[in-house]
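re: that chain from earlier
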Amino acid sequence: MNSGTAEHTGGPTEGDTFDAGAGGLLRQPKAVWATAGASVVAFMGIGLVDPILPSIAKGLDATAGQVSLLFTSYFLITAVAMLVTGFVSSRIGGRRTLLLGLALVVVFAGLSGTSGSVGELVGFRAGWGLGNALFVSTALAVIVGAAAGGSAAAILLYESALGLGMACGPLLGALLGDASWRYPFFGTAVLMAIGFLCITAFLKEQPKPARRTGLLDPIKALGHGGLASAAASAFFYNYTFFTVLAFTPFVLNMSPYKSGAVFFAWGLLLAVFSVLVAPRLQARFGSLKVLGGSLVLLAADVLVLGYGSHTTAVVCTILSGAFIGVNNTVYTELALGVSDAPRPVASAGYNFVRWFAAAAAPFFAPRIEGWTDIHIPFVVAAVTAVLGAVVVLVRRKSLTHDAEELETRHAAEDSVAVFAN
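^ sequence. v structure.
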């Protein structure tokens, strides 16, 4: 991989993308497909509740602000768990960590469907978030360790699972939630149980890292200027991302079927742009220019979403998936390559920071609406996206690294690379 220009940040060239896709993406062992399939379901859990948020509020006699805590509890636990996942997986191994995460999701997703109050549901979602953190933070490491075609193919496969899961989550939520808001939770529990059985059957234990990860290692890794800059920019971006994901369903105020269709289209754009479009844009313009431009366009899109008509809001919601898909891919590569710390440690520190924004946005957006009006939460989201771009611009030197210098070092770490997207 050539560093090319001073701005290059480890993004793939067109040759890299082609080789990964043609040479290894589809020809994978059963263990990789089992992990990737379970990853799809894990990512489905993020957007599963989107089309049924109004139904949950009605069924449990809760306000929009109370229901938004389903995301806040989920991602707050996920953020804190980033400090634990590397500690756990470096001691019990990747396979056991995956199975532990899946087991927790099965239990708490099932319990979510039995909730009698919004408080119970928020609590069960927190347990679900812990299980999901253990699973998704280890999934890429396992896929890289078992995949054919190298890390480039593994990352593409992981991004494909993310996009497919984000697209199918709202669709599953709509199809099952039209009958009852409880059914999507039971459906997720069943699917994750199937994933548990598949990984048990097909995945062998992965090699443990030579050095165990300490609880504070991810915090120490944030002392690296490049990683801290990537985390800060991703923090602002994730606030915008999850304002769209968690607050927009209340603004659209559509039936579960219609809302599910909107977010299914949104997820399809996210998948296409993260896997197919982003690598080509990076190869042509450089990762930092693509990221900065995409963040500014996302800010404009969210601003129009907030002030446009209902039809305009639907179109802008779907269109935001394209910018989010591009951003996800570039941020993934920054987190995996910008720091000289071991990948599991660097990515844990990065995710520890950015997931706090995913917890904050669902909490603050409905409250900002209550303090002001329905438009201002989107103004705030547009501002945070621009702030993410400003961090990229101001800290571009810290975000730039010599890809060839780090490539050899990271190649030895691919089998234990950890990243939660």
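The chain is about 80% helix and 0% strand.
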